[in-house]
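A reminder from the course coordinator: this example appears on the midterm review sheet, so study it carefully.

Given structure:
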């Protein structure tokens, strides 16, 4: 599984340029699903795929496939004591009080 937060924090400048070029905007400006697709693209590049191969795979992956690639909900606790839920792409911290 891919840890979306760790992957996003580990992006280097060359990867950011590739994301901007292929996805049409900077990573931080991409919507949830496209941010996830761009992270999957980077993951595939790091595994040895070419830009073209990684882009095609990231764009043809279904939403369900992308959901399954990212860390599952509550995989680990957050240091601040909040719970982690998973949206379509990436974990979203929420406080325990929001669950009541």
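Designed residues:
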């Amino acid at each position: 599984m891919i840890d979306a937060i760790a992957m996003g924090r580990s992006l280097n400048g060359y990867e950011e340029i590739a994301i901007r070029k292929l996805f049409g905007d900077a990573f931080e400006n991409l919507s949830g699903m496209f941010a996830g697709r761009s992270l999957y693209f980077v993951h595939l590049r790091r595994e040895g795929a070419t830009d073209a191969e990684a882009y095609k795979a990231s764009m043809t992956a279904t939403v369900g496939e992308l959901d399954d690639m990212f860390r599952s909900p509550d995989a680990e606790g957050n240091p601040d004591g909040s719970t982690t839920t998973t949206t379509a792409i990436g974990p979203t911290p929420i406080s325990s009080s929001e669950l009541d």
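Residues 23 and 34 are 8 Å apart (CA to CA). Confidence is low (pLDDT under 50) at residues 90-100.
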